[in-house]
């Protein structure tokens, strides 16, 4: 006889997130993002409400508040040691502690949980700040939309202001995966957690002065240096690849796939070699680097194809690479070449472990590498969580390079290739930016080992009173010689006081009164912490940590040396919280009670000479059903709007109003960009030319005053002289761009571009945009 048991499924009811808003204001690359979430406990019992936000590792939290029953509880930034004391006290009193954990792919998670009584509304507001880095010719802003459940009232507002002008801007399809090869398109099944994606915007700026752009405010300055159009300097590059037993399987397959592509991208003026290592070291071409001819590249690919995983002698591998690059330690053979002073020496070092054979002491390995590498730059890639990333980072910092994590995932090969693309095209080396006549002080780093195509060098500092123009001297090495340039750069006001709205933006976005001031602190703290990593002297480390801590506390930044404490606001809410930004450990800390008025940040007023793009998205709760953007935009001159989902961007210019209709704003397109195809083909059309790029490299430029055509990645672009351009993207997709020209234009007429879908049968029925408005 069997007894029958009845099981009842109990579904735990969560309290409701009623509002979720993300607001971001970007002023001259400096982004201030505010995430606000409101929770209502509709139940008859006390329930826990969790608030989570994913942050970039480069971001500093600058404010966090909890609002309940009209009271605002503002978090405080504390020294980590002080936070530990608060935690120990709270534990003895039985208080609940919050948790800040890290997450994959250089993303850190801010998390706080509070107990919410029945019928109570609680709002969380988190603000964080970061400088957007320029990589591969663009800045990228990524905003997480993860409320944790379907939300009725969810929105996103973005304002981007650049004083020198925005050259292009595009919003990518929602990134539902953090894989770089995210390909999700079309209709999605509604997830239980509601919207769970990243909204990514890419853009670049105009640069009118080759010496860069300097902006000042309140006695502080920032100098952005990113010259364009320089010839690429050839390189001597050594690829050092870990083939120890831990690389067996997927890791070695992905490494081989990435190397095959990377070798194809070498220029013929480059010289290269390959080294593999496990407990032994093997060099592909003994004692020399070889020119990247078609035959040598083919031979190298065959060598890579035969690589198989076989501990890990990091020291011997680095010394072998150094011998290939250091002319004093070897003599070149007749069939090879010693490194040239006109080529940039670099090592790409990939490992997934730590030193286990040969020399294993980190300090000795670091000392040996520094002595042997000389002026070579070492770029370290730590593959997976088991790699000794701290040591690799120190190796890179001490040898003119940087280190990155490569995460074990389906897109690891894309990560490897993406990093190489960043350093594949050096334009200048040994760059020194000097500020003459004793006009500045407290400047951040101004000596840089390399400047790569598509990147940007940034220097911040303080100005002495009365400075009107800043005298700047640049010294560097290019592909042929040492260059020295002096120039006086005008000092542009970064922000001004004014009463105008944010140039047509949907609403005033949260910002900061003086981003230049805070940017100086941001850079200084990061450099102090890097310097701390770069020294083994205990006294110097303590001094650097103290300086970084004092600056962090002054500017209310949560950094690796400070913690964010928000207090247990009794009796309405029961919790205490600490957030840290440590990437190597997780901390749990509680705090003491303190109620303050909420600190507010006002949006910086933008100079009338600035260029601004605004994006406001509403009804975002629909986005997890289908990628259907609902744009609420105001037509602003010099804004770039997403037009259709392929992607087509249109750049607007302001036109004179017609007589009698002066109150009506008129705008036309003066530039259209189309991005499509597996090869990342970008077609940029103006009234003068049609430029075709693939993978960030210019393929061809067709003038519009003559007939011409080009085919790339299955696309065909045909220019009809002074009339039009036909773009065929495949079966059933054809665009027509007309050049609207006037021989005798009237006062209100302006030459412009017209965009038309000549054949749209190949487009999805979900395709939407601003066309037809």
TrEMBL record:
User: Which Pfam families does the annotation name?
Assistant: ITI_HC_C, VIT, VWA
Q: Where is the VWFA domain?
A: 236-423
Q: Please verify whether the record's keywords include Secreted.
A: yes
Check the record and name the InterPro entries matching this protein.
ITI_HC_C, ITIH, VIT, VWF_A, vWFA_dom_sf
State the Gene Ontology BP annotations: hyaluronan metabolic process
Domain VIT, by residue range, is 1-130
Q: What is its main location?
A: secreted
Task: Give any GO molecular function from the UniProt entry.
Answer: serine-type endopeptidase inhibitor activity
Q: Which family does it belong to?
A: Belongs to the ITIH family.
Could you identify this protein by its name?
Inter-alpha-trypsin inhibitor heavy chain H6-like
């Amino acid at each position: 006889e069997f007894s029958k048991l009845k099981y009842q499924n109990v579904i735990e009811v969560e309290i409701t997130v009623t509002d979720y808003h993300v607001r971001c204001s970007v002023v001259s690359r400096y982004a201030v993002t505010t995430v606000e979430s409101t929770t209502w406990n509709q139940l008859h019992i006390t329930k826990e409400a969790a608030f989570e936000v994913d942050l970039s590792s480069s971001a500093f939290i600058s404010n966090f508040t909890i609002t309940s029953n009209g009271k605002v509880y503002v978090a405080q930034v504390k020294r980590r040691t002080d936070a530990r004391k608060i935690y120990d006290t709270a534990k003895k009193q039985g208080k609940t502690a919050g948790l800040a954990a890290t997450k994959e792919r250089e993303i850190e998670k801010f998390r706080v949980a509070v107990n919410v009584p029945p019928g109570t509304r609680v709002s969380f507001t988190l603000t964080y700040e970061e400088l957007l880095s320029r990589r591969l010719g663009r800045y990228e802003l990524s905003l997480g939309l993860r409320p944790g459940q379907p939300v009725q009232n969810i929105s996103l507002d973005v304002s981007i202001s650049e004083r020198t002008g925005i050259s292009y801007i595009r919003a990518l399809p929602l990134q539902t995966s953090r894989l770089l090869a995210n390909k999700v398109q079309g209709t999605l099944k509604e997830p239980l957690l509601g919207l769970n994606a990243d909204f990514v915007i890419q853009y670049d700026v105009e640069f009118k002065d080759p010496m860069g752009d300097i902006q000042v405010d309140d006695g502080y300055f920032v100098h952005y240096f990113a010259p364009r159009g320089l010839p690429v300097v050839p390189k001597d590059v050594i690829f050092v690849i870990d083939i120890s037993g831990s690389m067996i399987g997927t890791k070695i397959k992905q490494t081989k796939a990435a190397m095959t592509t990377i070798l194809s991208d070498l220029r013929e003026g480059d010289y290269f070699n390959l080294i593999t290592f496990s407990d032994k070291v093997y060099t592909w071409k003994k004692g020399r680097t070889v020119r990247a001819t078609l035959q040598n590249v083919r031979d190298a690919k065959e060598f890579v194809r035969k690589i198989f995983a076989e501990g890990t002698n990091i020291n011997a591998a680095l010394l072998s690479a150094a011998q290939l690059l250091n002319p004093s330690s070897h003599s070149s053979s007749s069939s090879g070449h010693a490194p040239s002073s006109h080529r940039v020496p670099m090592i790409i070092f990939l490992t997934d472990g730590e030193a286990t054979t040969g020399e294993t002491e980190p300090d000795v390995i670091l000392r040996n590498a520094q002595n042997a590498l000389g002026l070579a730059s070492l770029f370290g890639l730590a593959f997976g969580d088991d790699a000794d990333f701290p040591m690799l980072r120190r190796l890179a910092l001490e040898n003119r390079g940087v280190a990155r994590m490569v995460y074990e995932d389906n897109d690891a090969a894309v990560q490897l290739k993406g990093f190489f693309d960043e350093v594949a095209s050096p334009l200048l080396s040994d760059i020194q930016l000097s500020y003459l006549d004793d006009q500045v002080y407290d400047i951040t780093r101004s000596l840089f080992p390399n400047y790569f195509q598509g990147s940007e060098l940034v220097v911040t500092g303080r100005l002495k009173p009365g400075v009107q123009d800043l005298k700047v001297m640049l010294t560097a090495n290019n592909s042929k010689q040492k260059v020295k340039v002096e120039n006086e750069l005008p000092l542009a006001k970064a922000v001004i006081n004014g009463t105008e709205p944010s140039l047509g933006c949907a609403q005033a976005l949260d910002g900061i009164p003086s981003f230049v001031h805070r940017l100086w602190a941001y850079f200084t703290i990061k450099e102090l912490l890097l310097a701390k990593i770069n020294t083994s002297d205990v006294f110097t480390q303590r001094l650097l940590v103290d300086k970084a801590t004092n600056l962090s506390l002054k500017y209310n930044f949560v950094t690796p040396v400070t913690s964010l404490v928000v207090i247990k606001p009794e009796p309405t809410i029961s919790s205490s919280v600490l957030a840290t930004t440590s990437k190597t450990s997780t901390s749990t800390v509680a705090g003491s009670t303190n109620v303050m008025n909420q600190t507010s940040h006002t949006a910086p007023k933008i100079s009338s000479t600035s260029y601004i793009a605004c994006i406001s998205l509403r009804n975002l709760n629909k986005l997890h059903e289908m990628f259907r953007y609902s744009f609420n935009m105001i037509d602003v001159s010099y804004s770039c709007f997403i037009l259709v989902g392929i992607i087509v961007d249109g750049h607007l210019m302001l036109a004179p109003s017609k007589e009698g209709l002066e109150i009506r704003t008129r705008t036309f397109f003066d530039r259209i960009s189309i991005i499509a195809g597996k090869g990342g083909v970008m077609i940029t059309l103006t009234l003068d030319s049609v430029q075709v790029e693939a993978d960030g490299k210019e393929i061809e430029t067709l003038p519009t005053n003559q007939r011409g055509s080009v085919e790339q990645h299955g696309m065909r672009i045909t220019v009809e002289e002074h009339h039009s351009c036909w773009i065929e993207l495949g079966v059933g997709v054809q665009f027509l761009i007309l050049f609207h020209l006037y021989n005798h234009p009237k006062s209100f007429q302006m030459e412009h571009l017209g965009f038309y879908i000549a054949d749209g049968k190949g487009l999805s029925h979900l395709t939407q945009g601003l066309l037809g408005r």
